[in-house]
Structures are given as structure tokens and as C-alpha cells.
Amino acid sequence: MTRRMVLALVSVLAISWMVASALGVMVMEEEFAEIFDSGVQETADRLLPLVAEDLRERSPEAQRRLGQPTTGSEYLTYQVRDRDGAVLLHSHESAREGFDVPLRPGFADTDTQRIYTVVTPEGDLYLQVADAFANRREAIEEASTALILPVLVLIPASIIAVILVIRRTLVPIQTLRDDIARKDGGNLAPVDSGCLPTELDPIARSVNLLLERLRSALEAERSFASNSAHELRTPIAGALAQAQRLKADIPPHLAPRVDQIELSLSNLAQLSEKLLQMSRAEAGIGISDTIIDLLPVLELVVEDMSRSELGAGRIHLHLPEDGPLKAKVDPDAFGIVIRNLLENALTHSPEDSPVDIYVDKNRSIRIVNDGTPIDPALLPRLTTRFMRGQTQASGSGLGLAIVDNLAKRMNASLTLSSPAPGREQGFEAKIDLPKQA
Q1: CA distances (Å), origin 343, targets 19, 35, 418
Q2: Residue limits of the HAMP domain (predicted)?
Q3: Which of 203, 365, 376, 388 is close enough to 397 for a disulfide, judged by CB 3.0 to 4.6 Å?
Q4: Sign of CA dihedral 357, 359, 363, 368
């Protein structure tokens, strides 16, 4: 937008200056012609009596005075002629032959000169004063140059001035644009319209109204998902307990059906837990106002997962030797990330295979498991909700989506690799924590 405005304004300015210069040159040409004609006429009128008097005296002093050459170039040349056209006297740069114009008072033109003729009252002497057209063209060219040359300085100066003015004028628009660009699901605060000009107030007001409606809709959606997942916990747990009790009381031939019911209820409980985590992730948790040591959180999650049937004896934690792992990260969000990555690694790796957790010195956490490599083209899609890889293991397809959402809100990055770096197979999920402030 700035480029288009600069080009438009500078083009209009340059074209206007050129048109004004052309009109000015036309006016000056006409005015210069009048000034030069007036000068030639006044010179001839004042010179004629002096020349006539000197010629009629015919004294040696007069002849010497009339014949004395002038020094330097002459701007005007003249000739004194009798009524027969013979040249009696001429300026030292004038030709000896008479001017090729009739002996008639007034102005006459040749190809190179404009000549003014005056005659004495007796009619015996004619004075012709010539002004070269080259002199007039030189004056017009110098005046035209004086008008056009400033454009060479004016155009670059105008470009710089217009850019500075436009950029300064567009600062409120830039501020509004950047403020709107920072809005997302975790930042729906109203746009600050206090420093905006009057013309932008309706835009800021409309954006704030839209943000308010969007915030209300998101809050209603998150509240519904969170409340639904939370409220489902108790009845699902009760139904799962009843299914387990029923399994002990029914005949053996009905046990497979009860197992299916138990599995379905377990999957439903897991799905409700993931939905609850997703709603918490979208609520904006992730950043902490204070620096927190995350190693105790990591160790607590690993210990809890190691006690489960799925992770018993399989998780191997490799801690750094240089002390704590500190960052401005919400511990609850960090715990959800590690738990989901561990569950994903344990679920989608061969039974009883190890899962390694490495805490590197460069503030990254790597969770590596064995298994058949995944198609690299599929890796970017695994963070999409309800997207699952080529696996027969149970799952909701929400784990990596939750991790990716929380990682962005923690200003961290999630990198998925398969096969795991340094191995021929397996899967690695790497979290790079933000730098410590």
C-alpha cells in the first residue's frame, strides 16, 4: 500500500511539475520576445540621433570615434544605411553587406535575426539594429533548465518525504493490524482503541464486538466439553465397576461380551479424560509468570506411569548432570504433555519394549520407543484431532493434538521423527522448551 501511494503521489507531482514548467516556458518565451523587442527598439531610437549627428559632422574626430572597434562580443549589432541601401557604418561584428530586410521602419525577421529599422526625419539615414534568435533561445533554454532541474532533486526528496509521512500516518493501522494478528484462541482480549485515530474507531469497535462473540462461543464450547467430560467420569467409573463385578457373577460363556463392555467403557473413560485435557489446553494454560523447575514434575509423571500396568518396568528416565530444568511453563500443562507422550509411546510400541526419556542439555526432552517406522508423509498429520497412524492399538487420536496445542502455548516446539534418530526403527517425540528468561 505504501509503495502504491508513493508511486501515485510522486507521479502526479512529477507530471504536474512538468506541465507547469512547459506552460511557464511558453509564457516566458512570449514575455522574453516582448522584452527583447522592447530593448532593440529602445536601443535603435536612442542610437539613431547620435549616429546621424556624427556622420554629418564628417570630422576626423567623428570618423575616429565611429571607426573605433569595440572589445568583446556584441549582443546587438547594427548598420547605418543610406536611402539607396549602402552601408555607411556598422558594428565590428556586423557583416559589411546590408541586412536582407527592406528599408522600412519596424520589425523584420531573417532566418537568424530579428531586425528593427528606424529612419531619420529627413529620410536619408536608416539605422538597423539586429538581435540574434540564438540569444533568445539561449535565454529560454537557461530558464527551462532552471525550471526542470529542480525536478531531479524534488522527485527523490518527495519520495523520501512521502514515505516518511505515509509510514508515520500508517503507524496506527500497523498497530491495529499487529494487535489483531496476535489474537488467537488463547488471546481474545479487546483491541486497544485509545491511541487510534477517529477513522479507525469503527474498525476497532467491530473487531472487539467480534472478539467478544468469539470469546463467548469458545467459552461455551470449552465449558460444555469440560463439564461433559467431568460429569461423565463418575457414571463411566460406576458402569465400569459394575461391569467388572458382573464379570465375576455371570456364566463363563457370557464373559467375552462383558469383556467387550468393559473395554468400551475403558475407552469411553479415556476419551472423556482426553476431552477434558483438550478443553484445558484450549483454555490457554501453558505459560507461567514465574520460573519453575520442571524435573520434579517429570519425575512424578514417570513414577505414576511406571506404577500402571502399561508402563511397569518399561520406562527409563535419563536425567542431565547439570542440575534443574527451569522454564516459565505451567507445571500442569507440562505434566499433561509428558503424560500424553508417554501414553502414546507405551501404547504404540511392542509389548514389554523399553521407552526412554532423555533430558538433554539444550533444554529438550526426547521420548523414544520401538516399533515399525511410520511413513514420514504421515507425521505432520498426527497432530490433527482424531488422526491416528497405522496401528492396531487402542486410542482416541487426541494425544498428540493435545501435546501440540499445549506446546504452542508454552512457546515450545514439538518435533516428531520416525524412525527415531540413530535407530533403524521406532518413533521419537521431541519437546524443545523455551529459553529461560
Answers
A1: 77, 100, 17
A2: 167-219
A3: 388
A4: negative
- DSSP secondary structure string, 206-266? HHHHHHHHHHHHHHHHHHHHHHHHHHHHHHHHHHHHHHHHHHHHS-GGGHHHHHHHHHHHH
Contact 269, 233 (CB under 8 A): yes
- CA nearest 246: which of 230, 270, 265, 231? 265
Condensed to tens digits (0 to 9), the pLDDT of residues 54-111 reads 777 655 554 444 444 455 567 788 888 888 888 888 887 777 788 888 888 999 888 8
How does residue 368 score in pLDDT terms, banded at 50, 70 and 90? Answer: very high
**CB 226: neighbour CB atoms within 10 A?**
18
Instruction: State how far the Cα of 369 lies from the Cα of 383, in Å rounded to an integer.
Output: 18
Largest pairwise CA distance in the chain: 162
Report strand pairing: 315-318 vs 355-359.
Answer: parallel
Do the Cβ atoms of 331 and 291 come closer than 8 Å? no
Give the chain's end-to-end CA distance (angstroms, integer).
37
Domain extents for the chain? Answer: 2-156, 181-284, 285-437
Top-tier CATH class for 285-437 = alpha beta
Place of cell 512457546: 411
| Fold classification of 2-156 (topology level) | Beta-Lactamase (3.30.450)
Distance between CA 98 and CA 437 in Å, rounded?
Answer: 98
Read off the pLDDT of residues 344-354 as tens digits, 9 standing for 90 and up: 888 888 888 99
Minimal CA–CA distance to 114: which of 37, 43, 11, 16? 37
pLDDT digits 0-9 by tens, 235-253: 877 887 888 777 777 877 7
